[in-house]
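for the writeup, i need someone to sanity check this before i put it in the appendix. the sequnce is what the collaborator sent (i think, or maybe the updated version? ugh). structure was predicted straight from it, no edits. if anything looks off just tell me and ill rerun, i have time this weekend
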Amino acid sequence: MKKSQLQERYLKTNGVRYFIKTAGDKTAPLILFLHGFPDSWYSWRHQLTVMAAAGYYAVAPDMLGCGATDAPMEIARYSQDEMAKDIVGLIAALGHEQAIIVGHDLGASLTWQICLLYPEKVKAVIALSIPYGGRALAQPIPHMRKVFGDKFFYILYFQESGVAEKELDADIYDSLLRIYFSLGAEGSEIAAQYVANDNPISAENYLDTTIRPTKLPKWLKAEDLAYYVSRYEHAGFRGILNWYRCLDIYWERTPHLAGKKITQPTYFIAGKNDPINYMVRKAIKRLPTVVEDLRGVELFEECGHWISCEQTELLNEKILEFVGGLD
């Protein structure tokens, strides 16, 4: 297959401007890649070219608040109902009625909600790392405070505006290096204790729960890390952190989603060495009860949280296999 060249452009949707990278014929079936924390469109660079070569129009935005995409000041603007409108607007602006969506981490969480809020806009779903567990029975943040008590938990630490930003923005290179290593397969054995629901830790700051490697992980080149750093130098981490601050807002806005199931063809993938698995293991087991057309659940060997980069060829193979089996 001939490798497609990446193109870039800006599109306005729902009142904000998104930066996107694209590959392939604009009239081909649309496959949209949504990144999570703390990534950028760049995490999907290998998938974009492969999917374009296979006959798809592959698109990856810098998500709201990240990279060259707008970063609104209002925290509530990052609620998933607002961001779902953004993505539906992007689909229309790209000239399509619907898309296959591949989401990772927070991007996967958003993808599930797009499926529920705008089911006609999603042809199929590939979710990485974060499974759908159904609507939370209780308001998320108070429930987390009850569960974790005086244990450190990163989502609770992220709640107070300005605190995590100050920590992470102080040295963006160091912050990203620590996070990428600690959640990858090479650092996961040590980092797992910090996110496990049943392992209390002593920490005051988020980076206390990470480790700084003596060398880059195998999947991350120096030039790649430099590019990731450049995506956060403009607006910092505030935008992506605001995603976490809207959990209660979104929950309060969507009582009508109680009991709703995912109806689209769905494929779930996680890295076997991803420490996040400790948090979502029960939800992974529940997937067959809340996803009506679940076509596969896989845990990739020798893979942590950064699936698109740690197991690039295997992920590309599985995506092509899944989309090739759609009606």
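The two ends are 23 Å apart (CA to CA). The first helix runs from residue 45 to 53.
thx in advance!!
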